[in-house]
Amino acid sequence: MRRWLRSIAEEELVLGYAFIKRVVLSVVAGIVVGVAAAAFLLLLEKSIVAANTLGRYRVLLLPLGLLASVLIVRKLAPEAAGHGTEKVIEAVHQRAGRISLPTVPVKLVATIITIATGGSAGKEGPCAQIGAGLTSAMAGLLRLNEVDRKKLVVCGISAGFSAIFGTPVSGAIFGLEVLYIGQIYYDVMLPAFISGIVAFQTAVHLGVHYADQSLAVFPALASSSIIWVALSGVFFGLVALIHIEIVTVTEKYLKSIPARPEVKAFGSGLVLLILSLFFGTRYLGLGTGFIEAAVSGEPVPGGAFLVKSLFTGITLASGGTGGILTPTFFVGAGAGSFFATLFALDLPLFSSIGFVAVLSGAANTPIAATIMAIELFGGGIASFAAIACIISFAISGHRSIYPSQILARPKSPVFRFSDEDVTVENHRKKINLSITIIPELLSGLRDCWDREVLFPRDEERGPGEENLPPQDGE
Fold it and tell me: Nearest-CA neighbor of 125 among 135, 141, 110, 140?
Protein backbone atom coordinates (compact mmCIF):
# COMPACT_ATOMS: atom_id res chain seq x y z
CA MET A 1 0.00 0.00 0.00
CA ARG A 2 2.80 2.41 0.93
CA ARG A 3 4.65 1.69 -2.31
CA TRP A 4 1.46 2.22 -4.32
CA LEU A 5 0.77 5.56 -2.64
CA ARG A 6 4.36 6.61 -3.19
CA SER A 7 4.22 5.86 -6.94
CA ILE A 8 1.01 7.84 -7.28
CA ALA A 9 2.48 10.77 -5.33
CA GLU A 10 5.62 10.81 -7.49
CA GLU A 11 3.58 10.76 -10.70
CA GLU A 12 1.32 13.58 -9.54
CA LEU A 13 4.27 15.70 -8.43
CA VAL A 14 5.93 15.33 -11.82
CA LEU A 15 2.67 16.11 -13.63
CA GLY A 16 2.05 19.08 -11.35
CA TYR A 17 5.50 20.51 -12.03
CA ALA A 18 5.05 20.05 -15.79
CA PHE A 19 1.59 21.64 -15.60
CA ILE A 20 2.80 24.73 -13.72
CA LYS A 21 5.78 25.08 -16.06
CA ARG A 22 3.60 24.91 -19.16
CA VAL A 23 1.00 27.30 -17.78
CA VAL A 24 3.59 29.94 -16.87
CA LEU A 25 5.39 29.70 -20.22
CA SER A 26 2.16 29.72 -22.23
CA VAL A 27 0.77 32.75 -20.35
CA VAL A 28 3.98 34.71 -20.94
CA ALA A 29 3.99 33.64 -24.60
CA GLY A 30 0.36 34.71 -24.99
CA ILE A 31 1.03 38.15 -23.54
CA VAL A 32 4.15 38.75 -25.65
CA VAL A 33 2.55 37.57 -28.87
CA GLY A 34 -0.71 39.41 -28.09
CA VAL A 35 1.16 42.70 -27.70
CA ALA A 36 3.10 42.17 -30.94
CA ALA A 37 -0.02 41.11 -32.86
CA ALA A 38 -1.98 44.12 -31.60
CA ALA A 39 0.84 46.46 -32.62
CA PHE A 40 0.94 44.87 -36.08
CA LEU A 41 -2.84 45.05 -36.58
CA LEU A 42 -3.10 48.67 -35.43
CA LEU A 43 -0.16 49.75 -37.60
CA LEU A 44 -1.60 47.89 -40.58
CA GLU A 45 -4.98 49.57 -40.11
CA LYS A 46 -3.42 53.03 -39.94
CA SER A 47 -1.25 52.32 -42.98
CA ILE A 48 -4.25 51.22 -45.05
CA VAL A 49 -6.17 54.35 -44.00
CA ALA A 50 -3.20 56.51 -44.97
CA ALA A 51 -2.89 54.81 -48.36
CA ASN A 52 -6.63 55.22 -48.98
CA THR A 53 -6.28 59.00 -48.73
CA LEU A 54 -4.73 58.83 -52.21
CA GLY A 55 -8.08 57.66 -53.58
CA ARG A 56 -7.97 55.93 -56.94
CA TYR A 57 -4.27 56.72 -57.29
CA ARG A 58 -3.48 54.33 -54.44
CA VAL A 59 -3.14 51.40 -56.85
CA LEU A 60 -0.16 53.11 -58.47
CA LEU A 61 1.78 52.37 -55.28
CA LEU A 62 1.58 48.60 -55.86
CA PRO A 63 4.71 48.11 -58.04
CA LEU A 64 6.72 50.29 -55.65
CA GLY A 65 5.32 48.41 -52.64
CA LEU A 66 6.32 44.99 -54.01
CA LEU A 67 9.75 46.36 -54.93
CA ALA A 68 10.25 47.80 -51.44
CA SER A 69 9.12 44.54 -49.81
CA VAL A 70 11.63 42.51 -51.85
CA LEU A 71 14.50 44.87 -51.09
CA ILE A 72 13.79 44.98 -47.33
CA VAL A 73 13.50 41.21 -47.01
CA ARG A 74 16.54 40.40 -49.15
CA LYS A 75 18.82 42.85 -47.36
CA LEU A 76 17.69 42.34 -43.75
CA ALA A 77 16.05 38.93 -43.25
CA PRO A 78 15.63 36.48 -46.17
CA GLU A 79 13.67 34.15 -43.87
CA ALA A 80 10.81 36.65 -43.91
CA ALA A 81 10.07 36.01 -47.59
CA GLY A 82 6.75 34.53 -48.69
CA HIS A 83 3.78 33.75 -46.47
CA GLY A 84 5.02 33.40 -42.91
CA THR A 85 3.10 30.32 -41.78
CA GLU A 86 4.91 28.16 -44.33
CA LYS A 87 8.31 29.31 -42.99
CA VAL A 88 7.21 28.58 -39.43
CA ILE A 89 6.08 25.04 -40.29
CA GLU A 90 9.40 24.49 -42.03
CA ALA A 91 11.29 25.77 -38.97
CA VAL A 92 9.38 23.48 -36.60
CA HIS A 93 10.02 20.38 -38.70
CA GLN A 94 13.57 21.05 -39.86
CA ARG A 95 15.21 23.34 -37.27
CA ALA A 96 13.46 22.39 -34.00
CA GLY A 97 11.58 25.69 -34.07
CA ARG A 98 14.62 27.98 -34.37
CA ILE A 99 13.65 31.28 -35.99
CA SER A 100 15.89 34.32 -36.27
CA LEU A 101 14.64 37.20 -34.12
CA PRO A 102 15.38 39.90 -36.76
CA THR A 103 12.73 38.17 -38.86
CA VAL A 104 10.00 39.62 -36.61
CA PRO A 105 10.36 43.37 -37.32
CA VAL A 106 11.30 42.78 -40.95
CA LYS A 107 8.24 40.61 -41.50
CA LEU A 108 6.03 43.19 -39.82
CA VAL A 109 7.28 46.12 -41.93
CA ALA A 110 7.38 44.22 -45.24
CA THR A 111 3.85 42.88 -44.79
CA ILE A 112 2.42 46.29 -43.94
CA ILE A 113 4.04 47.73 -47.09
CA THR A 114 2.75 44.87 -49.27
CA ILE A 115 -0.86 44.98 -48.06
CA ALA A 116 -1.18 48.76 -47.65
CA THR A 117 -0.03 49.34 -51.23
CA GLY A 118 -2.55 46.82 -52.58
CA GLY A 119 -0.76 43.46 -52.61
CA SER A 120 -3.14 40.49 -52.42
CA ALA A 121 -1.89 38.88 -49.21
CA GLY A 122 -3.15 38.08 -45.72
CA LYS A 123 -2.36 39.27 -42.24
CA GLU A 124 -2.20 35.91 -40.45
CA GLY A 125 1.17 34.74 -41.81
CA PRO A 126 3.12 37.63 -40.28
CA CYS A 127 1.46 37.08 -36.91
CA ALA A 128 2.30 33.39 -37.01
CA GLN A 129 5.92 34.18 -37.87
CA ILE A 130 6.06 37.01 -35.34
CA GLY A 131 4.63 34.74 -32.63
CA ALA A 132 6.97 31.91 -33.51
CA GLY A 133 9.99 34.22 -33.68
CA LEU A 134 9.31 35.76 -30.29
CA THR A 135 8.67 32.41 -28.58
CA SER A 136 11.79 30.96 -30.21
CA ALA A 137 13.77 33.86 -28.73
CA MET A 138 12.13 33.19 -25.33
CA ALA A 139 13.18 29.54 -25.56
CA GLY A 140 16.74 30.63 -26.25
CA LEU A 141 16.82 33.01 -23.27
CA LEU A 142 15.44 30.30 -20.97
CA ARG A 143 17.81 27.70 -22.45
CA LEU A 144 15.02 25.24 -23.14
CA ASN A 145 15.79 21.94 -24.83
CA GLU A 146 14.66 21.23 -28.40
CA VAL A 147 11.44 19.50 -27.36
CA ASP A 148 10.33 22.37 -25.13
CA ARG A 149 11.44 24.88 -27.76
CA LYS A 150 9.20 23.29 -30.39
CA LYS A 151 6.27 23.24 -27.98
CA LEU A 152 6.74 26.89 -27.10
CA VAL A 153 6.98 27.84 -30.78
CA VAL A 154 3.73 25.97 -31.47
CA CYS A 155 2.16 28.04 -28.66
CA GLY A 156 3.43 31.15 -30.45
CA ILE A 157 1.78 30.03 -33.71
CA SER A 158 -1.53 29.39 -31.93
CA ALA A 159 -1.34 32.72 -30.13
CA GLY A 160 -0.66 34.54 -33.40
CA PHE A 161 -3.68 33.02 -35.15
CA SER A 162 -5.94 33.60 -32.16
CA ALA A 163 -5.01 37.27 -31.95
CA ILE A 164 -5.23 37.94 -35.66
CA PHE A 165 -8.73 36.55 -36.25
CA GLY A 166 -10.26 36.95 -32.80
CA THR A 167 -10.94 33.20 -32.61
CA PRO A 168 -9.00 31.86 -29.61
CA VAL A 169 -10.22 28.25 -29.74
CA SER A 170 -9.89 27.63 -33.47
CA GLY A 171 -6.65 29.63 -33.52
CA ALA A 172 -5.17 27.31 -30.90
CA ILE A 173 -6.37 24.20 -32.75
CA PHE A 174 -5.08 25.55 -36.06
CA GLY A 175 -1.58 25.89 -34.63
CA LEU A 176 -1.69 22.22 -33.60
CA GLU A 177 -3.41 20.85 -36.70
CA VAL A 178 -1.53 22.68 -39.44
CA LEU A 179 1.84 21.02 -38.77
CA TYR A 180 0.78 17.53 -39.87
CA ILE A 181 -1.85 15.97 -42.10
CA GLY A 182 -3.55 13.27 -40.06
CA GLN A 183 -1.95 14.03 -36.69
CA ILE A 184 -2.34 16.59 -33.89
CA TYR A 185 0.14 17.70 -31.21
CA TYR A 186 -2.04 16.62 -28.29
CA ASP A 187 0.65 17.16 -25.64
CA VAL A 188 0.76 20.86 -26.55
CA MET A 189 -3.00 21.32 -26.55
CA LEU A 190 -3.33 22.86 -23.07
CA PRO A 191 -0.52 25.44 -23.42
CA ALA A 192 -1.67 26.27 -26.96
CA PHE A 193 -5.18 26.99 -25.70
CA ILE A 194 -3.84 29.12 -22.85
CA SER A 195 -1.55 31.07 -25.19
CA GLY A 196 -4.35 31.60 -27.69
CA ILE A 197 -6.85 32.87 -25.13
CA VAL A 198 -4.29 35.12 -23.43
CA ALA A 199 -3.10 36.56 -26.76
CA PHE A 200 -6.68 37.25 -27.85
CA GLN A 201 -7.57 38.99 -24.57
CA THR A 202 -4.33 41.00 -24.67
CA ALA A 203 -5.08 42.23 -28.19
CA VAL A 204 -8.64 43.20 -27.19
CA HIS A 205 -7.38 45.19 -24.19
CA LEU A 206 -4.91 47.01 -26.44
CA GLY A 207 -7.69 48.26 -28.71
CA VAL A 208 -8.06 45.65 -31.46
CA HIS A 209 -11.66 45.23 -32.63
CA TYR A 210 -13.03 42.12 -34.32
CA ALA A 211 -16.04 42.07 -36.63
CA ASP A 212 -19.15 40.13 -35.55
CA GLN A 213 -20.43 37.99 -38.43
CA SER A 214 -22.94 35.87 -36.46
CA LEU A 215 -25.79 34.61 -38.62
CA ALA A 216 -29.21 35.06 -37.06
CA VAL A 217 -31.26 32.40 -38.88
CA PHE A 218 -30.31 28.91 -40.04
CA PRO A 219 -32.41 26.46 -42.02
CA ALA A 220 -33.44 23.23 -40.32
CA LEU A 221 -31.02 20.31 -40.61
CA ALA A 222 -33.32 18.37 -42.95
CA SER A 223 -32.33 15.63 -45.37
CA SER A 224 -32.39 18.04 -48.31
CA SER A 225 -30.17 20.49 -46.41
CA ILE A 226 -27.63 17.77 -45.66
CA ILE A 227 -27.52 16.72 -49.31
CA TRP A 228 -26.89 20.29 -50.51
CA VAL A 229 -24.25 20.87 -47.84
CA ALA A 230 -22.52 17.60 -48.76
CA LEU A 231 -22.52 18.55 -52.44
CA SER A 232 -21.13 21.96 -51.53
CA GLY A 233 -18.35 20.21 -49.60
CA VAL A 234 -17.34 18.40 -52.80
CA PHE A 235 -17.40 21.70 -54.68
CA PHE A 236 -15.37 23.51 -52.02
CA GLY A 237 -12.80 20.70 -52.00
CA LEU A 238 -12.34 21.15 -55.75
CA VAL A 239 -12.11 24.93 -55.30
CA ALA A 240 -9.42 24.42 -52.65
CA LEU A 241 -7.51 22.17 -55.05
CA ILE A 242 -7.75 24.76 -57.84
CA HIS A 243 -6.69 27.53 -55.43
CA ILE A 244 -3.60 25.56 -54.39
CA GLU A 245 -2.66 24.76 -57.97
CA ILE A 246 -3.07 28.35 -59.21
CA VAL A 247 -0.84 29.69 -56.43
CA THR A 248 1.72 26.89 -56.95
CA VAL A 249 1.88 27.12 -60.75
CA THR A 250 2.13 30.92 -60.64
CA GLU A 251 5.04 30.68 -58.22
CA LYS A 252 6.86 28.12 -60.38
CA TYR A 253 6.34 30.20 -63.50
CA LEU A 254 7.65 33.43 -61.97
CA LYS A 255 10.66 31.62 -60.50
CA SER A 256 11.53 30.30 -63.95
CA ILE A 257 11.77 33.81 -65.42
CA PRO A 258 15.48 34.76 -65.70
CA ALA A 259 15.36 38.22 -64.15
CA ARG A 260 16.46 39.87 -60.93
CA PRO A 261 13.97 39.66 -58.02
CA GLU A 262 13.58 43.46 -58.00
CA VAL A 263 12.67 43.48 -61.69
CA LYS A 264 10.16 40.65 -61.27
CA ALA A 265 8.57 42.38 -58.28
CA PHE A 266 8.11 45.69 -60.09
CA GLY A 267 6.94 43.97 -63.28
CA SER A 268 4.45 41.82 -61.36
CA GLY A 269 3.06 44.95 -59.76
CA LEU A 270 2.47 46.39 -63.22
CA VAL A 271 0.77 43.15 -64.29
CA LEU A 272 -1.55 43.35 -61.29
CA LEU A 273 -2.41 46.93 -62.19
CA ILE A 274 -3.30 45.88 -65.73
CA LEU A 275 -5.41 42.98 -64.45
CA SER A 276 -7.22 45.32 -62.05
CA LEU A 277 -8.28 47.43 -65.04
CA PHE A 278 -10.21 44.42 -66.36
CA PHE A 279 -11.42 42.81 -63.11
CA GLY A 280 -11.58 45.75 -60.71
CA THR A 281 -9.65 46.69 -57.58
CA ARG A 282 -11.65 44.47 -55.19
CA TYR A 283 -8.99 41.77 -55.62
CA LEU A 284 -6.18 43.96 -54.29
CA GLY A 285 -5.28 44.15 -50.60
CA LEU A 286 -6.97 42.09 -47.89
CA GLY A 287 -10.38 41.98 -49.57
CA THR A 288 -12.27 42.09 -46.26
CA GLY A 289 -15.03 44.22 -47.79
CA PHE A 290 -15.75 41.49 -50.33
CA ILE A 291 -15.77 38.80 -47.62
CA GLU A 292 -18.19 40.76 -45.44
CA ALA A 293 -20.47 41.39 -48.41
CA ALA A 294 -20.52 37.70 -49.37
CA VAL A 295 -21.31 36.33 -45.90
CA SER A 296 -23.95 39.03 -45.47
CA GLY A 297 -25.79 37.72 -48.52
CA GLU A 298 -24.96 40.50 -50.96
CA PRO A 299 -24.45 39.39 -54.58
CA VAL A 300 -20.80 39.18 -55.67
CA PRO A 301 -19.18 38.35 -59.05
CA GLY A 302 -19.39 34.64 -59.86
CA GLY A 303 -15.77 34.00 -60.83
CA ALA A 304 -14.26 36.22 -58.15
CA PHE A 305 -12.72 33.30 -56.28
CA LEU A 306 -10.62 32.29 -59.30
CA VAL A 307 -9.41 35.84 -59.93
CA LYS A 308 -8.41 36.25 -56.27
CA SER A 309 -6.31 33.08 -56.45
CA LEU A 310 -4.45 34.50 -59.44
CA PHE A 311 -3.85 37.88 -57.78
CA THR A 312 -2.60 36.17 -54.63
CA GLY A 313 -0.29 33.85 -56.54
CA ILE A 314 1.29 36.75 -58.42
CA THR A 315 1.70 38.86 -55.27
CA LEU A 316 3.40 36.17 -53.20
CA ALA A 317 5.46 34.68 -56.02
CA SER A 318 6.84 38.09 -57.03
CA GLY A 319 8.25 38.77 -53.57
CA GLY A 320 5.31 40.32 -51.76
CA THR A 321 5.18 39.43 -48.07
CA GLY A 322 2.08 38.34 -46.21
CA GLY A 323 -0.17 35.45 -45.36
CA ILE A 324 -2.34 33.28 -47.57
CA LEU A 325 -5.28 32.52 -45.28
CA THR A 326 -7.10 35.82 -45.72
CA PRO A 327 -7.09 35.40 -49.53
CA THR A 328 -8.26 31.82 -48.94
CA PHE A 329 -11.21 33.17 -46.93
CA PHE A 330 -11.98 35.47 -49.87
CA VAL A 331 -11.87 32.49 -52.24
CA GLY A 332 -14.09 30.42 -49.94
CA ALA A 333 -16.71 33.11 -49.40
CA GLY A 334 -16.82 33.89 -53.13
CA ALA A 335 -17.10 30.20 -54.04
CA GLY A 336 -19.92 29.76 -51.51
CA SER A 337 -21.83 32.70 -52.96
CA PHE A 338 -21.36 31.29 -56.47
CA PHE A 339 -22.60 27.83 -55.41
CA ALA A 340 -25.65 29.29 -53.66
CA THR A 341 -26.50 31.50 -56.63
CA LEU A 342 -26.13 28.59 -59.05
CA PHE A 343 -28.68 26.45 -57.20
CA ALA A 344 -30.85 29.20 -55.65
CA LEU A 345 -29.76 28.40 -52.09
CA ASP A 346 -29.25 30.53 -48.96
CA LEU A 347 -26.50 33.06 -49.85
CA PRO A 348 -25.28 33.95 -46.33
CA LEU A 349 -25.26 30.32 -45.19
CA PHE A 350 -23.29 28.87 -48.10
CA SER A 351 -20.93 31.85 -48.29
CA SER A 352 -20.14 31.28 -44.61
CA ILE A 353 -19.73 27.53 -45.14
CA GLY A 354 -17.44 28.17 -48.11
CA PHE A 355 -15.42 30.60 -45.98
CA VAL A 356 -14.31 27.74 -43.70
CA ALA A 357 -14.65 24.71 -46.01
CA VAL A 358 -12.12 25.99 -48.56
CA LEU A 359 -9.78 26.71 -45.64
CA SER A 360 -10.25 23.11 -44.49
CA GLY A 361 -9.38 21.70 -47.91
CA ALA A 362 -6.53 24.08 -48.69
CA ALA A 363 -4.79 23.94 -45.28
CA ASN A 364 -5.89 20.41 -44.27
CA THR A 365 -7.39 21.66 -41.00
CA PRO A 366 -11.01 20.41 -40.82
CA ILE A 367 -11.30 20.58 -37.01
CA ALA A 368 -9.97 24.13 -36.72
CA ALA A 369 -12.11 25.25 -39.67
CA THR A 370 -15.28 23.81 -38.12
CA ILE A 371 -14.61 25.47 -34.77
CA MET A 372 -13.80 28.75 -36.53
CA ALA A 373 -17.22 28.64 -38.20
CA ILE A 374 -18.85 28.36 -34.77
CA GLU A 375 -16.76 31.18 -33.31
CA LEU A 376 -17.39 33.52 -36.24
CA PHE A 377 -20.94 32.69 -37.33
CA GLY A 378 -22.62 31.13 -34.29
CA GLY A 379 -23.38 27.65 -33.03
CA GLY A 380 -26.24 27.05 -35.43
CA ILE A 381 -23.81 26.54 -38.31
CA ALA A 382 -21.86 23.76 -36.56
CA SER A 383 -23.42 20.73 -38.28
CA PHE A 384 -23.36 22.31 -41.74
CA ALA A 385 -19.77 23.46 -41.37
CA ALA A 386 -18.58 20.09 -40.06
CA ILE A 387 -20.07 18.18 -43.01
CA ALA A 388 -18.68 20.55 -45.63
CA CYS A 389 -15.25 20.91 -43.99
CA ILE A 390 -14.67 17.16 -43.67
CA ILE A 391 -15.76 16.45 -47.25
CA SER A 392 -13.66 19.34 -48.57
CA PHE A 393 -10.66 18.03 -46.62
CA ALA A 394 -11.07 14.59 -48.22
CA ILE A 395 -11.67 15.87 -51.76
CA SER A 396 -8.68 18.26 -51.91
CA GLY A 397 -6.25 15.32 -51.77
CA HIS A 398 -2.68 15.35 -50.52
CA ARG A 399 -2.06 18.98 -51.43
CA SER A 400 -1.70 22.09 -49.31
CA ILE A 401 -1.12 25.81 -49.41
CA TYR A 402 1.68 24.93 -46.95
CA PRO A 403 4.10 22.61 -48.84
CA SER A 404 6.13 21.89 -45.66
CA GLN A 405 3.23 20.08 -43.96
CA ILE A 406 4.17 16.54 -42.97
CA LEU A 407 1.99 13.76 -44.37
CA ALA A 408 1.63 11.73 -41.18
CA ARG A 409 -1.30 9.66 -42.41
CA PRO A 410 -2.92 9.32 -45.86
CA LYS A 411 -6.49 10.45 -46.34
CA SER A 412 -7.43 7.01 -47.64
CA PRO A 413 -5.88 3.57 -46.97
CA VAL A 414 -5.67 3.14 -50.74
CA PHE A 415 -2.67 5.50 -50.76
CA ARG A 416 0.81 4.70 -49.50
CA PHE A 417 3.62 7.23 -49.16
CA SER A 418 7.16 6.42 -50.20
CA ASP A 419 8.85 7.69 -47.01
CA GLU A 420 8.03 8.49 -43.40
CA ASP A 421 7.76 12.15 -42.42
CA VAL A 422 7.48 13.12 -46.08
CA THR A 423 6.24 16.62 -46.87
CA VAL A 424 3.42 17.63 -49.18
CA GLU A 425 5.98 19.18 -51.52
CA ASN A 426 8.15 16.06 -51.87
CA HIS A 427 5.78 13.13 -51.42
CA ARG A 428 5.38 10.30 -53.89
CA LYS A 429 2.21 8.30 -53.40
CA LYS A 430 1.44 4.74 -54.44
CA ILE A 431 -2.08 3.47 -55.06
CA ASN A 432 -2.97 0.02 -53.77
CA LEU A 433 -6.37 -1.04 -55.12
CA SER A 434 -6.06 -4.51 -53.57
CA ILE A 435 -7.62 -3.23 -50.33
CA THR A 436 -10.67 -1.74 -52.04
CA ILE A 437 -13.95 -3.31 -53.14
CA ILE A 438 -12.81 -3.40 -56.78
CA PRO A 439 -10.97 -6.78 -56.58
CA GLU A 440 -13.97 -8.33 -54.83
CA LEU A 441 -16.30 -7.08 -57.57
CA LEU A 442 -14.04 -8.41 -60.32
CA SER A 443 -13.68 -11.73 -58.53
CA GLY A 444 -17.47 -12.00 -58.14
CA LEU A 445 -18.06 -11.25 -61.83
CA ARG A 446 -15.41 -13.78 -62.84
CA ASP A 447 -17.00 -16.41 -60.62
CA CYS A 448 -20.45 -15.72 -62.13
CA TRP A 449 -18.94 -16.03 -65.60
CA ASP A 450 -17.27 -19.34 -64.78
CA ARG A 451 -20.52 -20.74 -63.31
CA GLU A 452 -22.44 -19.26 -66.28
CA VAL A 453 -24.92 -17.55 -64.00
CA LEU A 454 -25.15 -14.43 -66.13
CA PHE A 455 -25.06 -16.09 -69.56
CA PRO A 456 -26.23 -19.75 -69.44
CA ARG A 457 -25.45 -22.08 -72.38
CA ASP A 458 -28.14 -23.38 -74.74
CA GLU A 459 -28.37 -26.85 -73.15
CA GLU A 460 -29.16 -25.24 -69.81
CA ARG A 461 -32.25 -23.43 -71.10
CA GLY A 462 -35.58 -24.28 -69.56
CA PRO A 463 -38.22 -26.58 -71.15
CA GLY A 464 -39.56 -25.19 -74.39
CA GLU A 465 -36.87 -22.57 -74.69
CA GLU A 466 -34.98 -24.51 -77.36
CA ASN A 467 -37.62 -23.62 -79.99
CA LEU A 468 -37.61 -19.89 -79.23
CA PRO A 469 -36.21 -17.63 -81.97
CA PRO A 470 -32.67 -16.41 -81.28
CA GLN A 471 -32.39 -13.14 -79.40
CA ASP A 472 -30.29 -10.18 -80.46
CA GLY A 473 -26.63 -10.91 -79.99
CA GLU A 474 -27.05 -14.74 -79.93
Answer: 110
